[in-house]
Amino acid sequence: MSSLAAVLLLFPLAAHADTCSPIDVQGDITCSSDLAGTTETGTDLLSAYSGGTCSNIPQGGPEVIYTFEPQNTGAVTFRIDGMQVDKDIYVLQGDCDSTSCLKSSIASGTSTDAVTFTAVTGTTYYVIVEGYSQGAAGTNGFSLHFDDGSGGCLEDCDNGLDDDSDGNADCADSDCASEPLCQCDLDNDGYSAISCGGSDCDDADDRVHPNAVDVPYDGVDDDCDGADLCDVDGDGFDAVECAGADCADLDGQVHPDAVEVPRDGIDNDCLDGDVCDADGDGVVALAAVCGGQDCDDDDASVLPGAVDIEFDGIDQDCDGADAGNCDADADGVSALACGGPDCDDTDALVLPEAIEVPYDGIDNDCTDGDLCDVDGDGFEARLQASAESSTHP
Predict the structure, then answer these.
(1) What global pTM score does this model have?
(2) At 203, phi and psi to the nearest 5?
(3) Contact of 231 with 198, CB cutoff 8 Å
């Protein structure tokens, strides 16, 4: 309970004639709270009240006694209701003595009784609920209510109630402006400062608290997790914007430990850009992302200015074609080395359309070698093989 709260207490008091005497404590209430009580547990210590505006009516029933010590000067009201038999309420000022009566309410029957008075700070008041009529067991209960009219009670700054009935509860009440507890959420973001045992790492900025979204690379620990967000892609490397080494912090595949993929337009390992001379021949690759002239960046022997070997199927000098005349014999048919069907590009008489001449040792039509079995009997002519004869053996 805050030290600022005014408290109504059942209070054990010293005994003397027609004054308050020790009684059993019935319970505690704070400002604007309600207390359920009963005179069945009270003691008949006070019988006649005088002073102030009190009605001098003999009270022969038991009473329950509370104390009230205001921390501000202002009007307050105490009232009792919820009764089955007649009860009355008295307020004593300064001393718990029946001659110190300040105000009373003795409405007949079970009507609500209420007393309103100006409470002065530094003064002790005794609130007496008198059992004017004492009924059967279980019928002597009542509810005591405290209503703060204009400042007799300060706000209890941590009980969730509007104790002084001014429309503002706890730290929202100006009464709590100097309360240390209320210095713990200066930015009113709903989170107490770390200095108060809370979790708000910047209590001067309502955008910073544990439930905030952390903005990457802004140098601010928006969500109070201990650091600014510097590794958005979660690859274990801080972004270059945070003085880290990750050159693409939105791509988890790009970081200093990644394998560099040549000619993909990405600096995968964050080291000197993309690789555009993978073969190390000093010429940048022809790939669009590199913009160079090396038509095969995986082969250091292929580059502009290299000697192009004829008919090897490789464009060594990157001029757009392999070297060599693909129809050297001018027979209109490209050589085999160039992907054509001419099996001897040095002889214009050798081409697929030529007539095969038997036994001349030349594959004139570029089909299955020289013709050596003209009669088709399965045996090659003697002219071609000494082990054979021109007739069947």
Answers:
(1) 0.42
(2) -80, 5
(3) no
